[in-house]
Amino acid sequence: MTSHIRLVWIYPDLLSTYGDQGNVLVLEQRARARGLSVETVHVRSSDPVPEQGDIYLIGGGEDRPQILGAERLRKDGGLHRAVARGAALLAVCAGYQIMGSVFGGEEGQPVSGIGLLDISSARGERRAVGELAAEVDPALGVPTLTGFENHMGVTRLGPGVRPLSRTIIGTGNGDGTEGCYAGKVIGTYLHGPALARNPALADLLLAWTVGPLAPIDDTWYQRLREERLAAVIPG
Amino acid sequence: MSQLPLRAQLASALGRTAATLSRATGRGDGSVIGGRVGLMLEPDLLRQLAADRRLALVSATNGKTTTTRLIASALRQLGEVATNAFGANMPAGHVSALSSAKDAPYAVLEVDEKYLPEVLDTTRAGVVCLMNLSRDQMDRAAEIWLLAQKWRRALAAQQTLVIANCDDPLVAWAASGSSRVSWVAAGQRWREDSWCCPECGGPLDRKGADWACRECAFRRPTPSWVLDGEDVIDPRGQRWRLDLRLPGQANRANAAIALATVAAFGLEPGHALLGLREVTSVAGRYTTVERDGRSLRLLLAKNPAGWLEAFDVADPSLPIILSVNAQGPDGRDTSWLWDVDYRILRGRPVLVTGERRRDLALRLYVAGVPFQLCDSFGQAVAVLPPGRIDVIANYTAFQQIRTEFGRAE
Ligand SMILES: [Zn+2]
Questions:
Q1: CA 20 to 30 Å from A109, out of A132, B95, B209, B278?
Q2: Containing domain of residue B382, as a range?
């Protein structure tokens, strides 16, 4: 398999409001720690999305940038072709909603998504802000998710996706599940640097691309995880 | 101000009494509680207290406390100035500031970004200063595109003179809602929130300090005041050396805004600068405190743009202590740590402390910045040899350190 990884960060000029760069940095660090070479492309919203990437990342943002981002991705088509080719994608928060058929705009109006995931989102009653913890689908072999959510979305999963996890604390999709996945596409409401607190999720994306991974020093990741999980999960 | 209606006079006096009691019982400086009591008794109090004064409002994500202080210090040469020196920057704090200086003909109020439209509408201030807008404590603060839009609408509805930084596209867009703007080229270090046009969402092309939208007519307005390194160039082209006692580029930007603001009050830069240079520290920021032979300079950084400013001031040859909390006033979400580029700290001894030190530790580990984790601030200080040390802390971490050192300013 390949020893070179191409990361594509989609629209940091529109959708990187909450430390989303963290996911790029964590993937780079964990790939390099295994001797893989990494090349990262930052794609501005005025530029075409390259099709030859291995892992694509898209982050969170405000309502207007989210709508602009969805329009441009649909017009561009590069991400669709990359995913069809078998590339992996992590879509976070506003980026997660964009992947569905529809999401709620600034006044709650329905805005078309880009249809890469079988989900539909709408604007909920209340903003969900706070720590989130959730048990991941055992099929993925990833331990408890931990992170922070900050969104007003309610997301309904269609038959074409599986829930990524079931919430212990927090709101997630709004029905007791959090995030979803289909093939190599993962969506989550854990905003910002979700991979920093869930390195196994980062490794899942890397393993989808290069196959089984050697263990690496995880000390600082694990210390943060332990602290956060202990702080939010009762007893 | 003596024409204040009886009810307002009473509300204002009772508010001051509440503030005094609050101070006397050790519950803080009293500026918020006093204002709340006053507003409860007379909801129209802020408008009445602001009437008949020459008032400037100061708002921004970063630098509003310092800029308010600079403006007040300069204006004192013209007469008494009412100001919210403790950073109590919502209406209760404004009421308290104005009622504690009833007869001051001038007032300068720092205003929380979210409250600016409301406070402007209530006070009909003659001058509004806007410096910058960037991501800040997103779990509770308004989103900044939305905020800029609210500013824009509020300014369009008033005859206020706006003093605005034309180097920040979001601020320029908000201010251009007004028909009266004095543009100041005060610079913009943090650009991650302004790659796209606030008007149409198109890409902003930048060339040096200049910027313009590729898809619509929105572009950088022409400044009449320019910050050029250590100097400010006024609208007549005259160059003024700032020689501030506050350090760093961000404070020179604050000073440029302050000079343009007090010029609107009739104060020439030559006179204004005398006042600006009297300011040495603001609410403990930039203060040096001493402990066991160590001189600790305290820098406050509340958000990614603030960290860039603090890095600009920090001395690369000194060890540095970083302290991060995530209590309510800090924002409970530490995601922003990933927006800060810490690699500039490579090569310095870096000590990490604060309630969320593990978040910061991982951030530094991924950035390849060697560090030492300390369980307390005191431990971090003790680890370092005697000498000068820089400290960067976010809001409540900063307050904890100040409390430990007795809040001496
Ligand atoms: Zn435009």
A1: A132
A2: 288-404
> Whose CA is closest to B396, among B322, B324, B336?
B324
In a domain, B281, yes or no: no
Minimal CA separation from B149 to chain A, in Å: 11
Q: Mark yes or no for CB contact B363/A44 under 8 Å.
A: no
**Shortest CB distance from A192 goes to which of B143, B195, B335?**
B335
* C-beta atoms of B335 and A223 within 8 A: no
Distance CA B15, CA B19 (A): 6
Distance from CA of B199 to the nearest CA of A (A): 11
Are B71 and B138 in a shared domain?
A: yes
B270 shares its domain with B300: no
User: Angle at CA B235, nearest 5°, toward B148 and B155?
Assistant: 25
**Residue A97: which residues within 8 A CB-CB, separation 6 or more?**
A66, A103, A104, A113, A119, A121, A153, A155
Backbone dihedral angles phi then psi of residue B194, each to the nearest 5 degrees = -140, 50
Regarding whether B361 and B335 lie in a shared domain, the answer is yes
DSSP H helices in B194-324: 249-264, 269-276, 304-313
Hunting for tokens 């991982």 — which residue is that?
B362
Q: Are B312 and B341 within 8 A, CB to CB? A: no
Task: Give yes or no for a contact between A53 and A38, defined as CB atoms under 8 angstroms apart.
Answer: no
The answer to whether the beta carbons of residues A177 and A154 sit under 8 Å apart is: no
Q: Based on the domain organization, do B349 and B234 belong to the same domain?
A: no
Q: Are residues B206 and B268 in the same domain?
A: yes
> Domain A4-232 belongs to what architecture?
3-Layer(aba) Sandwich (3.40)
Structure tokens at A187: 């969506």
Inter-chain touch B196–A25, beta carbons under 8 Å: no
Same domain, B15 and B110: yes
Q: Using an 8 Å Cβ cutoff, are B391 and B297 in contact?
A: yes
Q: For residue B76, report the distance from its CA to the centre of ligand 1, in Å.
A: 42
- For residue A148, what is the nearest residue in chain B, using CA coordinates? B333
Predicted TM-score (pTM) of the model is: 0.90
Put simply, whether B143 touches A (Cβ < 8 Å) is yes
Distance A101 CA to ligand 1 centre (A): 28
pLDDT tens series, chain A, 235 aa: 578 999 999 999 999 888 999 999 999 999 999 999 999 999 999 999 999 999 999 999 888 899 999 999 999 999 999 999 999 999 999 999 999 999 999 888 999 999 999 999 999 989 999 999 999 999 999 999 999 999 999 999 999 999 999 999 999 999 999 999 999 999 999 988 999 999 999 999 999 999 999 999 999 999 999 999 999 987 6
For residue B409, tell me if it sits in a domain. Answer: no
Provide, as residue numbers in chain B, all residues whose Cβ is less than 8 Å from the Cβ of A44. 195, 203
Here the CATH number for the domain that contains residue B67 is 3.40.1190.10
Q: Looking at the annotation, which residues of A are catalytic?
A: 93, 191
B38 shares a domain with B156? yes
Q: Respond yes or no on whether ipTM tops 0.90.
A: yes
